[in-house]
Amino acid sequence: MKKSVFLGALTVAGLAAGAASAATLDDVKAKGFLQCGVTTGLTGFAAPDANGEWEGFDVGVCRAVAAAVFGDPTAVKFTPTTGKTRFTALASGEIDMLARNTTWTFTRDVDLKFEFTGINYYDGQGFMVPKELGVTSAKELDGATVCIQTGTTTELNLADYFRANNMSYEPVPIETNSEAQQQYLANACDVYTTDRSGLAATRATFENPADHVILPETISKEPLGPLVRHGDHEWGDVVRWVLNALIIAEEKGVTSANVDELAKGTDNPEINRLLGTEGSYGEILGLDAAWAVNAIKAGGNYGELFEKHIGENTPIGLARGLNAQWTDGGLLYAPPFR
Prior knowledge:
Layout: H1 3-21, H2 23-31, E1 34-39, E2 47-48, E3 54-55, H3 57-70, E4 76-81, H4 86-91, E5 97-98, H5 106-109, E6 114-116, E7 121-123, E8 125-130, E9 144-149, H6 153-164, E10 169-174, H7 177-185, E11 191-195, H8 196-204, E12 212-214, E13 222-224, E14 227-229, H9 233-252, H10 259-262, H11 269-275, H12 281-285, H13 291-299, H14 302-309
Parallel strand pairs: 1-4, 1-5, 9-10, 9-11
Antiparallel strand pairs: 2-3, 6-14, 7-13, 8-11, 8-12
């Protein structure tokens, strides 16, 4: 092939890819709402309240994206997904983004062709048992029956851990957290294993949470965060930088209470860029200048979302730990806003 023809083909391919990259943002704007995939129900992270309104830490990320795009955190609809259905829902376009209930792994990123846009919760897999069993370590679980969600990294990690420690187990397959809770409380399994945050959230719903123990072992890395489809870079940038904006806002002391005042201008150039008083960052994203202001106002910065829904003063009672800001010894670190 002649070089000129080859370069021409690349140009056409590039233009086609460029046109495709804007598809999701354009489609979301055209239909007037964001379709966000969430778990089927995990207290504190994503679950409908008594009025059927979705709320939680992950729901807050969805609402922040909707607020950034539309200026309205309620311009979002939620699709409950299981470990098995979530990828099909995203790949097919049934949902525009999937919020958190997915671990960032090589095969999901590369082979399944999804793009993880960041990490909003650093987690690890653990085990919960009834206190009456007298078990104090996962190394004592040889021969146990284990409730395990199918189609998850949890299932694979469990097999690896027991094999590495020369132990056997009997899996009790379940599809949703509510099913796991029912089976576990009905003594259909000795142990429930999932991400430690999920165990804490599940235990908080029990009538007697103190009767159940989360064992000390963390057997895996589970970086959890929102994801979108491969190839849609403009949309990926929107979701990525909304999450980054919430993280940067906490770092810089920008809250839902003071964001409007700070948006009038400050002595901090990065805050000014974030809140739209300097530069044209909203325009670069395909959004208006107040996109980050609206995202922060939707439910607060990262720390506000954490403390409201899953923090130490909630029934779930999670400490920040690895999810503290990098300035406080955690892993939470957003790229510079410049």
